[in-house]
């Protein structure tokens, strides 16, 4: 009897009780292969024994995981390495084949589109660039997209194409939902356009999340399971990695951290709301503030030129740099309160500010973030200009070797 005294209904379980199926044998295999690829990217060329030790499995298991990667020529064996003085068989280090299969990558920004053909080891073999104005039509942007992708992908065998798109995206339809800076991108069906043209599986995601995949597969995030990849410049955004996986909302929602409100009833944002983080921590804000402070060349000021003014002894520039760092740190500290990744890899304009800006940003993040022992760490990306393209390659790798059933 139920506590109310009424008869308890029989429990009925249907196949609708869970939308996610059990992980299949093939999915487990794909997940293991992805772990091997991630480990190789982290360690560099490695023998079977080295991989087995790093992954905590025996030689027979690692051999089973590796065989499909060798059969598909994703990995190749290097020349034998002489054994140590202790003896044993010569090891044959495994590494990625340098001449294909290819990963396609596209960065679709408010001002330009770049395409690259990339090997599994992250080497960019070909890259093409085309610019357009912010009032360009959808047809003009599409023509630029076809121009650069034809230059990189035509006649090539692609494992897939990964697209980093500015603005809000819908990963289920493969299109850009909206882009405030460049309305011609609104509704662009980028996946359908590229799949029709090249016959390769194509994936699109929000730019900061693809950037985070670049960090995860090829950048500073290779050694970190939890971090945020932060884009700075004319817009702001987070790509969040938790437990080695990029976090996404349904159909690609989320990541629009620049439109979280940090100042109630603050300045109006391009999105129509007031007080968004973007209104106090982007290049537009920085240039307006520089003009109000009487700094030279305020209309083109960025973190690089601001840091140069500081180095030349300008007190006004030093105060503005510190304020810019504080405003950037506000959004980072808010994210630390919610998700606490503990590590922040900066990209875009902020990276051009050098150590002066990184130190100021670290100081403010330490001051504003919750106090839980070790403060969050701020890094500047090693190669912020190319990591988004490498993230497009990572988007393909994450799909081909997905842990999802």
TrEMBL record:
<dbReference type="InterPro" id="IPR000600">
    <property type="entry name" value="ROK"/>
</dbReference>
<dbReference type="Pfam" id="PF00480">
    <property type="entry name" value="ROK"/>
</dbReference>
<dbReference type="InterPro" id="IPR036390">
    <property type="entry name" value="WH_DNA-bd_sf"/>
</dbReference>
<dbReference type="InterPro" id="IPR043129">
    <property type="entry name" value="ATPase_NBD"/>
</dbReference>
<comment type="similarity">
    <text>Belongs to the ROK (NagC/XylR) family.</text>
</comment>
<protein>
    <submittedName>
        <fullName>ROK family protein</fullName>
    </submittedName>
</protein>
<dbReference type="InterPro" id="IPR036388">
    <property type="entry name" value="WH-like_DNA-bd_sf"/>
</dbReference>
